[in-house]
């Protein structure tokens, strides 16, 4: 029979192992590409998704079922979800803005997880989806109900959790209210989005402290844009507060079409490098991430925004000389 002390040590180890596991939600194929002016070929998108899965990422948001009129880059959403080379243990969620988008996603027969979104700002909701925050919550509830009825998992996004480009600072109490509403709808997880990247460790800590006790932190993720270079620092604060899931985009791709001036997401390579240094387990092969990030940047003819990737690639180049 195991002694009481041994049992306590085992429980302690199990807890430590759990707290040391960190999940990266890769959003490069959707959030990273949606604002690109030049259409990225479908075959390139598919290869990007497949490469990301092969790097060890377990959640890869692949596209958005939004009207092509509003986001032309996502016009090939049906083809994307039908042609992905799906790996066991990997989830391939899609973003859906409304019931029509959900119906299109369901019709493919390939979608088993969706993400829906609301903003903690009336002004942003009106600019983004032409309705108030309360109306957006009602729409989201309808989408969640219909998705869950079909056995589809639902993840929720809250945009502008720190600040809004039209309305200024966001009241943390509004984020708490929306978080509770999304959980009541049946969302298994809520991603807190600093859409315009104005957050700092101080404002992020203030937000998370306001949510503590009202929302289970094991159901929260963070989504930081790096407009002011604060994304990694904000992630560290979130980790210290108990968060163990973060969204990021390969090579730092991204930006928001409804938030002028917002730069890309936190680069997945930078996040993975930092997490490795903190002793957190991601299951991700950093080398493959760096290769994938450089590959997609070359395909798109753009600069790689990942500092870690640039440093690793420079070091490799010097070693070859």
Automatic annotation (TrEMBL):
Any one GO MF annotation of this record: metal ion binding
EC number: 4.1.3.4
The protein's enzyme class: lyase
Pathway assignment: Metabolic intermediate metabolism; (S)-3-hydroxy-3-methylglutaryl-CoA degradation; acetoacetate from (S)-3-hydroxy-3-methylglutaryl-CoA: step 1/1
Keyword Aminoacyl-tRNA synthetase listed: no
GO BP annotations, alphabetical order: ketone body biosynthetic process; L-leucine catabolic process
UniProtKB keywords: Lyase, Metal-binding
The keyword tRNA processing is assigned to this record: no
Segments forming domain Pyruvate carboxyltransferase: 22-290
Annotated catalysed reactions: (3S)-3-hydroxy-3-methylglutaryl-CoA = acetoacetate + acetyl-CoA
Gene3D superfamilies membership: Aldolase class I (3.20.20.70)
Pfam families assigned to the protein according to its UniProt record, in alphabetical order: HMGL-like
UniProt-listed NCBIfam families: PRK05692.1
PANTHER family documented for this protein: HYDROXYMETHYLGLUTARYL-COA LYASE
Family membership: Belongs to the HMG-CoA lyase family.
Protein name: hydroxymethylglutaryl-CoA lyase
Species annotation: Mesorhabditis belari
Record lineage: Eukaryota, Metazoa, Ecdysozoa, Nematoda, Chromadorea
């Amino acid at each position: 029979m195991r002694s009481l002390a041994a049992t306590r040590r085992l429980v302690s180890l199990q807890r430590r192992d759990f707290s040391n596991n960190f999940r990266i939600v890769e959003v490069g194929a959707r959030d990273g590409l949606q604002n690109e002016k030049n259409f990225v070929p479908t075959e390139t998108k598919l290869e990007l998704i497949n490469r990301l899965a092969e790097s060890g990422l377990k959640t890869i948001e692949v596209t958005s079922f939004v009207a092509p009129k509003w986001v032309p880059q996502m016009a090939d959403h049906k083809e994307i979800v039908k042609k992905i080379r799906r790996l066991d243990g990997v989830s391939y969620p899609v973003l859906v803005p409304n019931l029509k988008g959900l119906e299109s996603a369901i019709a493919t027969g390939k979608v088993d997880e969706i993400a829906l979104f609301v903003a903690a700002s009336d002004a942003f909701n009106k600019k983004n989806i032409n309705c108030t925050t309360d109306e957006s919550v009602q729409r989201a509830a309808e989408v969640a109900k219909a998705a869950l009825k079909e056995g589809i998992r639902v993840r929720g996004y809250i945009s502008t959790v720190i600040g809004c480009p039209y309305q200024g600072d966001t009241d943390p109490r509004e984020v708490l209210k929306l978080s509770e509403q999304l959980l009541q709808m049946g969302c298994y997880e809520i991603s807190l989005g600093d859409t315009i990247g104005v957050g700092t460790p101080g404002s992020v800590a203030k937000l998370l402290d306001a949510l503590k006790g009202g929302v289970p932190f094991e159901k929260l993720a963070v989504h930081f844009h790096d407009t002011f270079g604060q994304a990694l620092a904000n992630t560290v604060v979130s980790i210290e507060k108990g968060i163990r899931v973060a969204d990021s985009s390969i090579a730092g791709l991204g930006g928001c079409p409804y938030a002028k001036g917002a730069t890309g997401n936190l680069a997945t390579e930078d996040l993975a490098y930092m997490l490795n240094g903190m002793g957190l387990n991601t299951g991700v092969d950093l080398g493959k991430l760096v290769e994938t990030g450089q590959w997609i940047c070359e395909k798109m003819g753009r600069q790689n925004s990942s500092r870690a990737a640039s440093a690793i690639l420079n070091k490799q180049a010097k070693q070859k000389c």
